[in-house]
Design goal:
The protein has five domains: 95 residues, Alpha-Beta Complex (DNA Primase, Chain A), CATH 3.90.580; 127 residues, DNA primase, catalytic core, N-terminal domain (DNA primase DNAg catalytic core, N-terminal domain); 117 residues, Dna Topoisomerase Vi A Subunit, Chain: A, domain 2 (3-Layer(aba) Sandwich); 72 residues; 110 residues, DNAb Helicase, Chain A (Orthogonal Bundle). 53% of the residues lie in helices and 11% in strands. It contains 23 helices and 16 strands. A hairpin with a 2-residue loop joins strand 1 and strand 2. Helix 10 packs across helix 13 and helix 12 crosses helix 15. The radius of gyration is 28 Å and the shape is globular. 39% of the residues are buried.
Length: 558
């Protein structure tokens, strides 16, 4: 079975609506579905899915294609990686054509080896060892393996030796982020620490985090960013929490790994943790794919308070309802769970503040709003968070509330926010211009070529006619040309099936095809087809004539 056949089998078992629904919330609109696009800062649903054509397209950023394109974009994979993921999901063995392990696969394999090594170390130590005592005191005596916890061992360099025995080069170990080199030689990145495996959504270990047991600083230490791990894009425990988050449509963001585990031990399984002290915009966007309500449940100390305030703007920018939970008596969430169980956690959630109210209250406490300067500073501090709110109604309500608190005309605040929004749009536009001129790939095909693609991909009759009538020299965009050439090739074998055609296209070309399929032809299709064919064939004749003229006169020109 060749690659094309395998791709076809995987596509048949990978309904695009079902696959995309695992990542984003879909809304049925007629025969299609729509969603907030996860690939740009979308304000209203601009991504559409056509189940019949098995394609998606975003009218905001232009992302589109088939189920393979979606997985490549959302998981940041190459085509073979996306195919492997979908094959595993569908229970299909790729078999003889299973691709040689890619670089990212190899790095995940190496991190997985390190995780297994550390788990084995923890299994071997006695119950009186500091690592086991730490876990026993927190009620994890017999469940540590469930959470991917290990121990580095007491010997520095044990992982380096283990990897060497497994045939892992020092260079690959460094690229995986689990060992490093200094003047003394090659060393384990983590030493004398409990180890928590950080996994992607598929459960593959992509990084490790260590917790000190004897006052080491920092208390928590993550392995560094690598090709498979970027701490600002990953949430600890999301792979395990996702089923519960999807069921309840809520997520609880806590500060540390032990907080996540402490909540899970008492049955609160929808908790995740950022890799740093506050949520990044990418982590907030990740949560918003699955949750409608997000609770921030950080530590009850001053550091937890600061992390809460820093995390709120990232969540305001998403289409979620945000609440802030402050643990009673200055406790950590883990301590609260051990003291009061799930009842204590749920009681704290029930008493949560609205995220906006909490931020406003904290702002009033920080700035003296009885003075003009205090009012000005408070408003200035809130302009950027307000500008990040994409829902205009919600933004307007918050502006109104801020105006009442500081006794300032709401229109003044509104103008300040609008200036920030315009600044954001200019920055985005400038980035887009740089992106557009950076690569030829970003150049858009001519509209008339997209219109012709729409017609021939939507109706097999026009595909057959185009095959017989078109002069390919009239097509200027190489991606469009590849699509039509593939249609010609398939038609020669008696196949006029759009789905079959898509199976043989690369991801970049499929994206162009998706754009064409989602275009609406508002004029008579027969007239449009004839006019478009005439235009393209006319262009072909002019290009062929120019080529002949060059052959005759070109060598004589100077």
């Amino acid at each position: 079975m060749d690659l094309s056949e395998i791709k076809g089998r995987i596509r048949e078992k990978s309904n695009i609506v079902d696959v995309m629904a695992e990542y984003i919330r879909l809304q049925k609109v007629g025969k299609r579905y729509r969603a907030i696009c996860p690939f740009h800062q979308d304000t209203k649903p601009s991504l559409y899915i056509d189940p019949e054509k098995e394609m998606f397209h975003c009218f905001g950023c232009g992302a589109g294609g088939d189920v393979f394109n979606f997985i490549m974009l959302i998981e940041r994979l190459d085509f073979m990686g996306a195919m492997k993921l979908l094959a595993e999901r569908a229970g299909i063995t790729i078999g003889d054509i299973e691709h040689k392990k890619g670089d990212k696969d190899r790095l995940m394999e190496i991190v997985g080896l390190a995780r297994d090594f550390y788990e084995a170390n923890l299994r071997r130590v006695s119950q009186n060892h500091p690592a086991k005592r730490f876990l026993n005191e927190r009620g994890i005596s017999d469940r540590w393996l469930e959470f991917g916890i290990g121990y580095t061992g007491d010997k520095w360099g044990g992982l380096v030796e283990f990897l060497n025995d497994k045939g892992v080069s020092e260079e690959d170990g460094e690229r995986a982020g689990i060992i490093y080199r200094d003047d003394s030689g090659v060393r384990d990145y983590l030493n004398k620490r409990l180890v928590f495996a950080i996994s992607n959504l598929r459960g593959n270990a992509i990084a490790l985090a260590g917790r000190g047991l004897a006052g080491e600083e920092p208390k928590y230490l993550n392995t560094p960013n690598t090709d498979i791990f970027h701490k600002g894009r990953v949430l600890y425990n999301l792979n395990r929490a996702l089923p519960k988050i999807k069921e309840t449509r809520r997520a609880i963001v806590v500060e540390g790994y032990m907080d996540v585990i402490g909540l899970a031990l008492v049955g609160v399984k929808e908790a995740v943790a950022p890799m740093g002290t506050a949520l990044t915009s990418e982590q907030a966007q990740l949560i918003s794919r699955y949750a409608d309500i997000v609770y921030l449940l950080f530590d009850g100390d001053d550091a937890g308070e600061r992390a809460t305030i820093r995390s709120l703007p990232a969540l305001f920018a998403q289409d979620v309802e945000v609440f802030v939970v402050r643990p009673p008596d200055g406790l950590d969430p883990d301590e609260l769970a051990r003291r009061d169980g799930s009842e204590g956690i749920n009681r704290a959630l029930d008493n949560a503040y609205s995220g906006w109210d909490y931020m406003l209250k904290s702002g009033v406490e920080e700035y003296d709003i009885n003075t003009p300067m205090g009012k000005s500073n408070l408003v200035e501090a809130f302009l950027e968070p307000l500008a990040s709110i994409r829902d205009e109604v919600r933004r307007g309500v918050f502006i109104e509330e801020l105006a009442k608190v500081v006794s300032i005309d709401r229109d003044l605040i509104k103008r300040g926010v609008e200036n920030r929004i315009r600044g954001r749009k200019r920055a985005t536009a400038n980035k887009q211009v740089l992106s557009d001129i950076k690569t030829v790939k970003d150049k858009k095909p001519p509209l008339y070529e997209i219109e012709l693609l729409n017609i021939i991909l939507s109706d097999g009759r026009y595909m057959r006619r185009a095959v017989n009538e078109i002069n390919l020299n009239g097509i200027t965009d190489q991606r469009v040309r590849r699509i039509v050439e593939q249609a010609v090739e398939l038609s020669g074998r008696g196949i006029n099936d759009t789905r079959k055609l898509m199976e043989n296209l690369d991801s970049e070309t499929t994206e162009v095809a998706s754009k064409a399929l989602f275009m609406e032809i508002v004029w008579d299709v027969e007239t449009a087809f004839n006019d478009l064919m005439s235009k393209i064939n006319s262009i072909a004749k002019r290009r062929e004539l120019a080529d002949k003229m060059y052959e005759i006169f070109g060598s004589d020109t100077s």
